[in-house]
Design a protein that fits this description.
- The complex is a heterodimer of chains A (126) and B (464).
- With 126 residues, chain A is mainly alpha-helical.
- Chain A is built from five helices and three strands; from the N terminus they run E-H-H-H-E-E-H-H.
- Chain A has a two-stranded antiparallel ribbon.
- In chain A, strand 2 and strand 3 form a beta hairpin.
- The radius of gyration of chain A is 16 Å and the shape is globular.
- The two termini of chain A are 21 Å apart.
- With 464 residues, chain B is of the alpha+beta class.
- Chain B contains twelve helices and 18 strands.
- In chain B, strand 11 and strand 12 form a beta hairpin.
- Chain B starts with a helix and ends with a helix.
- Classes of the chains: A mainly alpha (126), B alpha+beta (464).
- The interface between A and B is medium-sized, with 23 and 26 residues.
Chain lengths: 126, 464
């Protein structure tokens, strides 16, 4: 999977990296248990600071998307099912997104069809 | 000797011309989405104004090449004065590499200005990309750096061999090790360099990056071995004092100039063909617009990029990112070193051209021969034999200066062995002095003075 970071974006580089890996996992471009490059390898290949990659990896690990093994480096987490734990967090995040959508005039049906279109791209299976 | 020097200069200048023409002439054709190292959309390459830049470049490029060629003529004319020939050649070479790219730089600037004016941007600007699988596996199929043990062993063996035979040639073995270390350094630098994202298709990225790294990494190992064999052959040719060595030297020089260049071109072409073949069938090829980091079209300056070495846009191989601290140091150091070498060599050459060795006999019976870097003192009582001769046996230079007009420094002569020469060639007679372990030949430019000095020495030795 190819990571593309926008240097001029307002989103910090570590967050762009984290977001793309999450989307990569959900869309199936990164498979479960697939190995990721080490922090140094990825930082060298992107030409960015190792601390930036380190921060993104730490965040991904904390959120449970990847596991970091001392011997084998970083890996995509095996498939797990903890939807209940996630539900509350999701609701908070969605609230903001839906609020923004409502203000900008997106109605419920439009929002839902947008959601289903995005959902259809996610090939992640439990 | 003179002929060899002129031949070497002619050959290197010819290589310079081939490299410059092969690198810059094709830049006026639209290839790999680029024209004059500026990324352009295809329709822009056919624009009227762009076409004007192209014809202007072709005309100017040809004119500059002819002008520099005309300025090379004095190198051939100066062949009787090797010191001035060398200085002129060095200056010409520097000038050539600066001047011959002026038409290209102009075309690059004009094309870039047109591109900005018309918003002919291709691909995304200011993005960095990395393929996660490639970042992990890019060096998987490359030659291991441990393979450099082989050329290193050859050079160490050569150093030991020269050390046992004759310490004067130890430098050849050390040069072999230095060259091996240089190739190892290049190889390690390439391993660390960024992988290229050709396409959104991971398979294509992985196979192209691995193939590229594999070919180049093995090439560096082979080059290190070839150069060590080259040094071993130089050593063999230098120690076998044969009259017909000239042919061997020319053959050796040509073979070991053509072979490395041939190998580099072969690898470059092979990888290039593979890229074209694979990417032709790929529908997800990626373009990024990083023109802004390529000042002049050929020097890379990108402070946002931490990598030291990047693949060149034009020509082959890698270049240094002067946006990094290490890049600045290397680039500045290389330029300073080159200037120091040229100034230093010119100074030494002019000094040896203007000064001649002098032989003086002091009151306390010490004979001293004064000449920069090769001065030598000995006592009159050390002289075992003193003769006036009309010929100097042939031999090889170990360390010193040998031109058509004079020979000064350490030599190894046929039948005599270790010898110090302080002579004007073709100006007999020569004073031949035999000490315990070394022979010395000395003469003045004026044969009358040489004879006088010889008589003086002879008188003093007989009195001692």
């Amino acid at each position: 999977m190819v990571i593309t970071l926008q240097l001029d974006s307002e989103t910090p580089l570590y967050e762009q990296l984290r977001n793309q890996i999450v989307i990569g996992i959900a869309t199936g471009r990164l498979e479960a248990q697939e190995r990721l490059p080490t922090v140094r390898q990825l930082a060298g290949d992107l030409g960015i600071n190792t601390m930036t990659v380190n921060k993104a990896y730490a965040l991904l690990k904390q959120e449970g998307y990847i596991v970091i093994d001392r011997r084998h480096g970083a890996k995509v987490s095996p498939r797990t099912q903890n939807a209940d734990v996630h539900a509350q967090q999701l609701e908070e995040q969605l609230q903001l997104i839906i609020a923004q959508a409502t203000i900008r005039g997106v109605d419920q049906s439009a929002f839902q069809s947008l959601c289903s279109r995005i959902f259809s791209k996610m090939t992640y299976q439990h | 000797m003179i002929a060899i020097l002129t031949a070497v200069y002619l050959l290197t200048a010819a290589i310079g011309y081939i490299v410059i023409i092969a690198t810059y002439n094709p830049q006026s054709r639209y290839k790999k989405g680029m024209l004059f190292a500026v990324t352009l959309p295809e329709h822009a390459a056919e624009d009227e104004r762009v076409r004007d830049i192209r014809t202007g470049f072709r005309r100017r490029f040809a004119r500059y090449q002819l002008a520099t060629l005309a300025l090379f003529v004095p190198v051939a004319v100066l062949h009787a004065w090797p010191a001035y020939q060398t200085i002129y050649y060095l200056l010409w070479m520097c000038g050539y590499f600066v001047v011959s790219v002026i038409p290209f730089r102009r075309a690059f600037r004009e094309t870039l200005a047109l591109k900005r004016e018309n918003d002919w941007f291709v691909g995304e600007k200011r993005v960095v990309r990395s393929d996660l699988r490639v970042a992990q596996l890019k060096n998987k199929r490359s030659a291991s750096p441990w393979l450099f043990v082989v050329p290193l062993a050859i050079s160490a063996g050569l150093a030991m061999w020269t050390f046992r035979d004759d310490t004067a040639y130890l430098g050849i073995g050390i040069a072999g090790m230095a060259v091996t270390a240089m190739f190892l350094f290049i190889s390690l630098g390439m391993r660390r360099a960024k992988a290229k994202v050709y396409s959104m298709n991971s398979e294509a990225n992985l196979s192209l990056n691995q193939a590229r790294r594999r070919a180049w990494s093995y090439l560096w190992v082979v080059m290190a071995m070839v150069e060590n064999v080259h040094f071993a052959l130089i050593y063999l040719a230098a120690t076998r004092e044969q009259a017909d060595a000239f042919g061997a030297w020319v053959a050796l020089t040509i073979a070991f100039t053509v072979l490395p260049i041939g190998l580099i071109l072969y690898v470059h072409r092979k990888i290039h063909a593979l890229e074209q073949e694979l990417l032709e069938q790929d529908d997800k090829v990626v373009y990024t617009d990083d023109d802004e980091y390529w000042a002049n079209g050929f020097t890379y300056h990108n402070p946002n990029d931490k990598s030291l070495m990047v693949t060149k846009r034009i020509g082959l191989g890698e270049t240094i990112n002067t946006g990094t601290m290490a890049g600045k140091v290397i680039m500045g150091g290389a330029l300073a070193l080159m200037a120091a070498v040229i100034v230093g060599v010119s100074f030494l050459l002019i000094r040896s051209e203007l000064t001649s060795p002098t032989l003086t006999l002091s009151q306390d019976s010490t004979v001293s021969i004064d000449y920069p870097m090769y001065s030598y003192d000995f006592s009159l009582s050390d002289i075992e034999e003193l003769t006036l001769v009309d010929d100097i046996p042939s031999g090889t230079k170990l360390n010193g200066e040998a031109t058509g007009a004079h020979a000064r420094g350490h030599f190894r002569l046929k039948g005599l062995g270790k010898t110090r020469l302080y002579v004007f060639k073709k100006n007999p007679p020569y004073i031949r002095i035999k000490l315990d372990d070394v022979y010395i030949f000395y003469n003045d430019k004026d044969p009358v003075l040489t004879t006088e000095q010889f008589e003086q020495l002879k008188e003093r030795t007989s009195r001692e």
